Amino acid sequence: MTPEELQRVSDWMVSNVAGFQGSARAAKFDVGQSNPTYRLETPQRNYVLRRKPPGVLLKSAHAVDREFRVQKALADSDVPVPAMLALCQDDTVLGTDFYIMEHITGRNIVDPSMPDATPAHRRAIIAEMARVLAAIHKVDVDAVDLSDYGPPGHYFERQLARWSKQYRASETETIPAMEALNQWLSAEMPADDGQRTLVHGDFRIDNLLFAPNSADCLAVLDWELSTLGHPFADLAGVIMQWQLPPGSEGRGLAELDRAALGLPSDAEFVADYCARRGIAQIANFGFYLAFAFFRMAAILQGVKKRALDGNAANPDKGLKLGAFVPRFAELGLEARDWNG
């Protein structure tokens, strides 16, 4: 953010953010979010500014106004979110939409294996993840005025059609595992069970902020992909992540001795989530997990195609990520027989 942009933002905040007195300094967060996010520091208190990236964007992409809306709607719910302070849709201020929210001081955990934690603390953190995820899915969307926050209809049917189309548009070679996975998902599509809840869309441990000295979740962040849909998509996304290799890149739990670490098995986490929502165990969870892998493989294929076409910000990284498409498809096929 340039000094001129920061001055315009400060002038706007004086009139639109209660208690703001100006003299802000901006520091960009270095986390990998597609919507640029800044900490605004003032002598009185700190704020967070989250904006659309500059440039030409797809119409529905980077909708920070939706992020603002959903978090404002959740202010008095059991879902912890930062307080939303103001939304700006005046392009003369920053050139793009942005919003201001409270700054929360908390711990951001990137690696779900939490190598520096005790078994008891790991167990408490993952239990808190299950509590928060269930709380998101128990929100009464009518009561918080979010009943129009996503389209109606069969969520997974719609999603499979969308990501199949996206994959075909970016396909660079025939990948047998992707063909087999796509065909299986189409053939095994479950009937619509009527569940239609708020879904986060990218629920991972690194999108949560925890209290400095406890397992309490202080905030759920990065609502860019949120909508109304099927709650098992969020749940499957958590389990999918855990199938990946541990460490800073995979951020998974594959082949770790979870019991020794104090971490639950996949089945234990799913059971905890179901208990917190008051629903029966999920009979065909393998479908939802397989779809999560298919969706991620399609996303990575798009990254690869943009790199090959010269449209990626980091072509080398794009090609590296794209190389994982066959592996994600294979993991999706393995997920068909998931039993925890």
From TrEMBL:
<protein>
    <submittedName>
        <fullName>Putative aminoglycoside phosphotransferase</fullName>
        <ecNumber>2.7.1.-</ecNumber>
    </submittedName>
</protein>
<dbReference type="InterPro" id="IPR041726">
    <property type="entry name" value="ACAD10_11_N"/>
</dbReference>
<dbReference type="Pfam" id="PF01636">
    <property type="entry name" value="APH"/>
</dbReference>
<dbReference type="InterPro" id="IPR052898">
    <property type="entry name" value="ACAD10-like"/>
</dbReference>
<dbReference type="InterPro" id="IPR002575">
    <property type="entry name" value="Aminoglycoside_PTrfase"/>
</dbReference>
<dbReference type="InterPro" id="IPR011009">
    <property type="entry name" value="Kinase-like_dom_sf"/>
</dbReference>
<dbReference type="GO" id="GO:0016740">
    <property type="term" value="F:transferase activity"/>
</dbReference>
<feature type="domain" description="Aminoglycoside phosphotransferase">
    <location>
        <begin position="28"/>
        <end position="247"/>
    </location>
</feature>
<keyword id="KW-0808">Transferase</keyword>
